[in-house]
Amino acid sequence: MPIFHSLTLMLLAVAVAFAAAITAFASPLKILPLQRAFPLDEPAELSELRARDSVRHARILLNRGGRQSSIGGVVNFPVQGSSDPFLVGSKATMLYFTKVKLGSPPTEFNVQIDTGSDILWVTCGSCSNCPRSSGLGIELHFFDAPGSLTASSLTCSDPICSSAFQTTAAQCSENNNQCGYSFRYGDGSGTSGYYMSDTFYFDAVLGVSLVANSSAPIVFGCSTYQSGDLTKSDKAVDGIFGFGRGKLSVVSQLSSRGITPPVFSHCLKGDGSGGGVFVLGEILVPGMVYSPLVPSQSHYNLNLLSISVNGEMLPIDAVAFETSNTRGTIVDTGTTLTYLVKEAYDPFLSAISSSVSQLVTPIMSNGEQCYLVSTSINNMFPPVSLNFAGGASMMLRPQDYLFHYGFYDGASMWCIGFSQALEEQNILGDLVLKDKVFVYDLARQRIGWAEYDCSMSVNVSVTSGKDIVNSGQPCLMISRKDMLLKFFSSVLLALLLCTFFTLT
Fold first, then answer.
1. In whole angstroms, what is the distance from residue 237 CA to residue 223 CA?
2. What is the C-alpha to C-alpha distance for residues 406 and 409, in angstroms, rounded to an integer?
3. For 105-238, where are the alpha helices, taking DSSP H only?
4. Diameter of the chain measured on Cα atoms
5. Lowest-confidence segment of 79-83, 147-151, 315-319 by average pLDDT
6. Residue 228's pLDDT band (cuts 50, 70, 90)
7. 229 classed as catalytic
8. Catalytic site residue 400?
9. Which is catalytic among the residues 114, 187, 238, 467?
10. What pLDDT shows up at residue 274?
11. Positive or negative torsion for Cα 162, 164, 168, 169
């Protein structure tokens, strides 16, 4: 009988070890292949890109100084923007968008990636003035709340709704007891609707190259009304996927429950038609450097300390890099170019022009500083370094601060892709973010980056170890060594437990 009892305990312990090992391997991560609304092989006017960015920045900077105070439960975003017909809206032209699935049965939505806002919202089927077609060549979908078996709306008494008053524009309807929201952006566009809870689908790693469909309930916005540029069809998508620092962002919701790690990453492909990958997890790249996030900020702010051109630090007034409620440096995937305050922009432009004065022909084009180049820009233009707190430097190649603007007189014309900021904030846009892995490590409150070819496979780590899954575009590889070590460690622990029970 003791022998049978020991064998039973041994089998049970081994089974527990197997379960623990498999559970450890099954840490979910979400893989989001990205598409680009503005392919780089399609010409675009620099003035149009800057105008588009300025409209977006009006919305970003409305939130400086912390959370907005609410009046009657509604956060009021003052209307700013321009009547310029070339502007297509701060939200309608986000460069990168991806797909998510919501509801039961699941419906797929094309949503814009935005690190400058918090919540995920999609268009509701009950919206009467929302776009019905898109110039991006994608089919638009509408969330059918009554048709989803797992959908439920948030009531005014829900704790999430009361906390939403502190983090987003939330309001309650006395007629139907629904927790609603209303957002107004700097260009005059806006959206309103109500918060829903429903199933969000993602991929979980269960073993070597084995991906299982997983899901979890999340809170998101169901848009019943849109205004301004959000009603236009030229670059319409189904909604916005906010990856901000607020409690209602999908990253915060899933990581707070231990469903995904408190980290997300992206790799934005810069050449051709763009694309890339966005992951709820940590992309592992050699040579990653980190800089701490500035605390108590609404956006992803870093402490930029200095700028070097060709290894020489520029004589920039320290006020250019001050961090406060109205100043600082923001990382923003929704901005095309990069913007420096005047105190930093003027020395930067002067240093670049001086460095190439004997090699290229300077020329002004539509008010932009450009250069006529007869050979590769890598052979003529100097390297640039953005130097951040924590000893982290972002090395920029010429193509990271120059924008190809076509040809003139038989020569290739390249223009400065940095611009003078209209406000007091430096903003790092896609021109410098592309062709790099960026890791937003929320647990350690830091951002890391490293150069990378975003068309290649990437390794992704989650909190349990290096669990990797094939995403198809680009793919994520699995680390067999770490998985085997973890498994055999679990089995060894089980055998030790068995020996202990046998001896006792």
1. 12
2. 10
3. 159-167
4. 95
5. 79-83
6. confident
7. no
8. no
9. 114
10. 67
11. negative
- What ranges in 27-158 are assigned the alpha helix state H? 46-62
- What tens digit of pLDDT does each residue of 302-346 get? 999 999 999 999 999 999 999 887 789 999 887 778 999 999 999
* 460, amino acid identity: V
229, two tokens:
């540029």
- Burial (Cβ within 10 Å: 0-12, 13-18, ≥19) of residue 39: middle
CA distance 378 to 403: 13
- With b for 16 or more beta-carbon neighbours within 10 A and e for fewer, the 176-213 pattern comes to eebbbbbbbbbbbbbbbbbbbbbbbbbbbbbeeeebee
Length of the chain measured in residues: 504
Q: What angle do CA 35, 54, 394 make, to 5 degrees?
A: 65
The one catalytic residue among 158, 198, 238, 332: 332
Please tell me what DSSP assigns to residue 174: T
Whether residue 127 is predicted with pLDDT greater than 50 in this model: the reply is: yes
In a 3-state reduction of DSSP, which class is residue 4? helix
pLDDT digits (tens, 9 = 90+) for 155-201: 888 887 876 544 444 567 666 778 888 877 655 678 889 999 999 98
